[in-house]
């Protein structure tokens, strides 16, 4: 049986990205380790996806989709059905896991939640029994139509020991030497805009320090990694594990001597000990979810942090790393006064850059419920309206939802674009700063001059101002 897996994003993306195959790589490696069905051949597609499906006519395709791409996933599945009707289509990913009620009958079956065990059992069942829905009913974590009835099977328990999951399959998927990995799954916090906690059932599970370091070494030795970004929600929350990771890395100091790291941390958890440990493992860049400069909005977001604590974390981290922050604009109940506080925070805080994005009501979050009450969203909507917009010049009410009811659109976008411009200049400056300078950044500037222009403009203005003051 021939199975093709791909992320719907890669069907339409013009740029090749190893990152989007991460979850699929875990499904493939898990299946190959634990399944006895060696005649089931799983291939992860990254490029030329439509052409490959037409040519190879696989028995199964598995489409992974986030919410903002779900409408395109439906359209592409319809295209497959029209062209290769014998191919059965499985849907997986965060969207259908968070909103199984939106399952579209163009798909034959959907996988809900953590996918490794469910996908293994589903592939094996289809191989043995075909599309027998009575067999699907016995598999936990599925959604499908049986006639006109939408069936959602019993929820599957999470994998207790995630060290059982082999390293994600990467052969032929990586590009260059800047790679990503995950060392844990889940988040115990419940921010109002994020579905991660509910997706992972309010838990966080860690790979052991040995597993983490061995995967790092695999990326270095087999894939030539020189910089590794940790995708964990909370990489450094377990300080005991972090200490052990650092200790094990020192036992392989020759392999790690030219490798740098980037991580995301939560401001209230930052302290001097954490910073020193991250510095020892050669972390050079740290990202923070700041979200707002308004304490009122931070409470609304259920962030369990104050703007002063965010500021204190930045001040401490800046002693060691390049520090960037992420901010949300146009959230439910936000006022112009709240937005101005975020602007002041960005302008007056010593960040090295970051980004801003419009508030998005993703399924399985309080923001989704807020939008649902106002009839802004529904289970059969055009889900592309829920894409994360970080370029505020492209905000259009016809294809982007605006949740802030108390801020005029003009003021929201004007102030947002000022924040965006300021952070963009800082981003490019940081590329050439002492803490993060690399030949890769020079090549990026040469290949993409538009990225470099804000940086060049900043320094030209600074030089001119210096000359004027000297006169």
Detail the topology: elements first, then pairings.
Blueprint: E1 2-7, H1 8-12, H2 22-34, E2 41-44, H3 49-56, E3 60-64, H4 70-83, E4 88-92, H5 94-98, E5 109-111, H6 116-129, H7 133-136, E6 142-146, E7 149-152, E8 178-181, E9 184-186, H8 196-199, E10 204-206, H9 209-223, E11 227-230, H10 239-250, H11 253-256, E12 260-265, H12 272-280, E13 283-291, H13 295-300, H14 307-317, E14 322-329, H15 336-348, E15 354-358, H16 366-373, H17 409-431, H18 439-447, H19 449-470
Parallel strand pairs: 1-2, 1-3, 3-4, 4-5, 8-11, 11-12, 12-13, 13-14, 14-15
Antiparallel strand pairs: 5-6, 6-7, 9-10
Helix pairs in contact: 2-6, 9-10, 10-12, 15-17, 17-19, 18-19
Tell me what the structure shows.
This protein has 471 residues and is of the alpha/beta class. It folds into 2 domains: 151 residues, Rossmann fold; 262 residues, Aldolase class I (TIM Barrel). The chain has 19 helices and 15 strands. The strands form 3 sheets. The protein has a 7-stranded mixed β-sheet, with helices on both faces. It has a 6-stranded parallel β-sheet with strand order 8-11-12-13-14-15, covered by helices on one side. Helix 9 packs across helix 10, helix 15 runs parallel beside helix 17 and helix 17 packs across helix 19. It is globular and about 60 Å long.
